[in-house]
């Protein structure tokens, strides 16, 4: 058993390549001990606000979060790799709106820079907005579009939210805490405990950890080599590059048409536009990202493919009647059941009801 555990650590954390493995594929690991890694040299700050590390309890809380982050080395490697893809865009938006650059680390802690990640409470996207908060800050969240998953719209909303929090609380550190637990709850605790110093407040345990988790991410990503993460430029995920185009959709329009016009796959368009739900783009005006270099001639190709599709397909809205079921409706209109389900974003575990509207493509 001990031998198996030791082998796991050698292979997982680095060491001598396994017998028969090409010698160039694995390199010996060489990184600082965990003990030396948490010897944090002051000063440390969040958004320019000092962290009082001379307080032993506060230093202990930061050491704990730094240790937990460093122990999960695969996750940190993904942080570093993804940050090269997304941080340049986030940093540009933070600078343009004159808010602190450190706020980018909030997105690391909230989502690990993953657009589709969700919480048990219903928060979604890069900045983990709840529906009501996202909508309050201008994000569209419906069955067809969820802009919480869009890097640019969600970052813009997060910036506006943080600005409001800072205007209300007068501290970026308190603003981060409020972002986690809600401004109403934080203000109540400030009044009840008669202090507006985050590091002196007794808050929900998740919020007590929250700023320290952000600080740990900042320390590591600001100097990854110090902590043994020696990634080359080729190791990093390439920066997000794209062309932006405007689409005018007179009705539900297949993403596949956009993909064909952009000379790309369906998956590429979905990955560039994670806010689009399902296989169709809803009626209206949309700003769409397409692969870098594909904008030239895109509109003419799109108009051509769309015209061909519209000539071939006619959309019919069917009102569900008593006794209907999906299979019977599909048979009645001679459309594949899977297509009916995809087009209407139906859940087979949830029944349809009289009065529901179903969109049906008629060839």
Note the main attributes of this structure.
363 residues, mainly alpha, Membrane-bound Lytic Murein Transglycosylase D, Chain A, 15 helices
Explain what this protein looks like in three dimensions.
Helices cover about 45% and strands about 10% of the residues. By secondary structure, the protein is mostly helical. The protein has three domains: about 30 residues, no CATH class; about 150 residues, no CATH class; about 120 residues, Membrane-bound Lytic Murein Transglycosylase D, Chain A, CATH 3.10.350.10. Helix 5 crosses helix 10, helix 8 packs across helix 9 and helix 11 packs across helix 13. It is globular and about 75 Å long.
Query: How many β strands by DSSP?
Result: 8
Low-confidence stretches are 7-19
Report the end-to-end length measured between terminal Cα atoms. Answer: 63 Å
| Total of helices | 15
Query: How much is the average pLDDT?
Result: 90
Précis, in short:
The chain is mostly helical and 363 residues long. Helix content is 47%, strand content 9%.
Write the layout of secondary structure elements.
Elements: H1 2-13, H2 34-37, E1 45-46, E2 49-50, H3 56-71, H4 73-96, H5 104-111, H6 131-136, H7 151-169, H8 172-181, H9 183-193, H10 205-222, E3 243-249, E4 253-254, H11 255-261, H12 266-272, E5 280-281, E6 284-290, H13 298-312, E7 314-319, H14 326-333, H15 337-343, E8 357-362
Antiparallel strand pairs: 1-2, 3-6, 4-5, 7-8
């Amino acid at each position: 058993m001990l031998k198996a555990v030791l082998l796991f650590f050698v292979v997982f954390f680095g060491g001598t390549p396994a017998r028969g493995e090409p010698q160039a594929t694995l390199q010996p690991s060489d990184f600082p001990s965990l003990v030396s890694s948490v010897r944090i040299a002051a000063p440390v700050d969040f958004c320019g606000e000092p962290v009082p590390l001379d307080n032993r309890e506060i230093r202990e809380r930061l050491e704990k979060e730094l240790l937990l982050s460093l122990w999960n080395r695969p996750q940190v490697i993904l942080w570093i790799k993804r940050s090269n893809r997304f941080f340049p865009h986030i940093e540009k938006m933070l600078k343009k709106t004159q808010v602190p650059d450190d706020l980018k680390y909030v997105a690391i802690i909230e989502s690990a820079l993953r657009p589709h990640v969700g919480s048990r409470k219903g928060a979604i996207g890069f900045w983990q907005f709840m529906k009501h908060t996202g909508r309050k800050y201008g994000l569209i969240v419906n069955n067809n579009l969820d802009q919480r998953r869009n890097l640019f719209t969600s970052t813009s909303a997060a910036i506006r939210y943080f600005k409001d929090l800072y205007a209300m609380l007068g501290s970026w550190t308190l603003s981060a805490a409020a972002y986690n637990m809600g401004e109403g709850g934080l203000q109540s605790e400030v009044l009840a405990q008669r202090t507006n110093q985050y590091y002196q407040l007794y808050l929900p345990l998740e919020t007590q950890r929250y700023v320290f988790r952000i600080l740990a991410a900042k320390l590591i990503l600001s100097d990854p080599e110090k902590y043994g993460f020696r990634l080359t430029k080729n190791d990093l995920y390439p920066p997000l590059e794209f062309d932006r185009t405007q689409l005018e959709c007179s009705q539900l329009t297949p993403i596949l048409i956009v993909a064909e016009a952009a000379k790309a796959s369906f998956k590429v368009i979905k990955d560039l536009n994670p806010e689009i739900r399902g296989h169709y783009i809803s009626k209206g005006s949309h700003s769409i990202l397409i692969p870098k270099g594909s904008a030239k001639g895109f509109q003419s190709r799109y108009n051509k493919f769309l015209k061909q599709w519209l000539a071939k397909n006619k959309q019919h809205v069917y009102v569900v009647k008593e006794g209907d079921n999906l299979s019977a409706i599909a048979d009645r209109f001679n459309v594949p059941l899977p297509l009916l389900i995809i087009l209407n974003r139906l859940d087979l575990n949830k029944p349809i009801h009289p009065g529901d509207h179903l969109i049906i493509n008629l060839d």
